[in-house]
Design goal:
It is built from 7 helices and 10 strands. 38% of the residues lie in helices and 22% in strands. With 310 residues, it is an alpha+beta fold. The longest helix is centred in the N-terminal third of the chain and has 28 residues. The protein folds into 2 domains: 120 residues, Immunoglobulin-like (Sandwich); 120 residues, no CATH class. Helix 3 runs antiparallel to helix 7 and helix 4 runs parallel beside helix 7. A 5-stranded antiparallel beta sheet has the order 1-2-6-5-4, with no helix packed on it. The protein has a 3-stranded antiparallel beta sheet with strand order 3-8-9, with no helix packed on it. A two-stranded antiparallel sheet has the order 7-10.
Length: 310
């Protein structure tokens, strides 16, 4: 009987020892639950936060080395509520001896636009840590702050001038240093435009030699065209007609030179042109590439001899 009692007592001691051992192991595994948030860094103030402000939270957590953070327990980036957005979540870990050091960063942005000072709360975050045996949790507590309106809902005393400020007066740019340059450009453009009108023959206030216009027309001709040579000759004939005031035929050259005495020095060249013209237009002779250079030179000589502004 005594032997049986001793055996029962030993068995009881063994059972108590096993229970105590399991209790110590469970306490060690659960140490993650009581692990503190070592550092906590936020925006720097929990008041006067306006719509659109970025709120940055950073937490440092130390856990036993056997526990690792469950990534799925981290909140997802995106819209958390109608006024709060989680823009960025970052997680880094470093090991030191028997512990892991986790650095967690959360960037929030508030879009709450209060009409007066309002109290808001960023919700708590529940994190999970696990080892091969169990899962433990740690809760990052909620964080409250005061959101401020952009302006008063109603002005003090009913006068908006008490808090509404005038717009910033636009700064005038001094253009004195650029004014002369602008004037110069305008004058240069005007001169070039008038010169173009003169070359095109659109200025009627000045008397332009018709031979000058004929030379311009010949230069504009498409030399590859089949009737380009006839058109060039006709342009010079039109210049003679314009100067005489009527159509000038070959047999009327003496009368033309008598009325336009300034062309006496070019009488031979004029007669040669009319003879050459008759051969091309009426006799069907073919002209070569030198025709255009010949007509341009003749027009230049006639324009220089003409008693007008060249």
């Amino acid at each position: 009987m005594r032997y049986l009692i001793i055996q029962l007592f030993c068995l009881l001691l063994s059972y108590c020892n096993m229970a105590l051992s399991e209790t110590n192991t469970e306490t060690h595994d659960d140490s993650i639950i009581s692990a503190p948030i070592v550092t906590k860094s936020v925006l720097g103030r929990d008041f006067g936060i306006l719509v659109g402000d970025i709120i940055s939270h950073q937490y440092t957590i130390i856990t036993p080395k056997s526990f690792s953070l469950t990534s799925s327990s981290l909140p997802s980036e995106g819209k958390l509520s109608y006024w709060l957005v989680l823009n960025k979540v970052s997680n880094s870990v470093s090991s030191n001896g028997e512990t892991n050091r986790y650095t967690l960063s959360f960037d929030y942005q508030t879009f709450y636009a209060p009409l007066d000072v309002h109290h808001l709360v960023i919700p708590a975050i529940e994190l999970s840590f696990s080892n091969n045996k169990k899962i433990s949790t740690l809760t990052i507590p909620p964080w409250s702050f005061i959101s401020s309106p952009l302006k008063e809902l109603t002005p003090s005393g009913g006068d908006t001038s008490d808090f509404m400020q005038a717009d910033i007066t636009p700064q005038k740019i001094d253009l004195a240093s650029k004014r002369h340059f602008i004037y110069l450009l305008v004058a240069l453009f005007t001169l070039l435009f008038l010169f173009w009108l003169y070359l095109a023959g659109h200025i009627t206030l000045w008397s332009i030699s018709p031979f000058h216009l004929a030379r311009h027309q010949i230069n504009q001709l498409n030399k590859q065209s089949s009737n380009a040579s006839v058109a060039a000759i006709q342009a010079v004939h039109c210049a003679f007609n314009s100067r005489a005031g009527h159509i000038v035929f070959t047999h009327q050259l003496d009368l033309f030179l008598e009325q336009q005495a300034q062309f006496d020095v070019l009488s031979i060249e004029i007669n040669d042109f009319f003879q050459f013209s008759d051969q091309i237009i009426f006799m069907g002779h073919q002209a070569d590439e030198s025709l255009y250079a010949y007509l341009i030179k003749l027009c230049r000589q006639l324009a220089l001899a003409d008693k007008v502004i060249k």
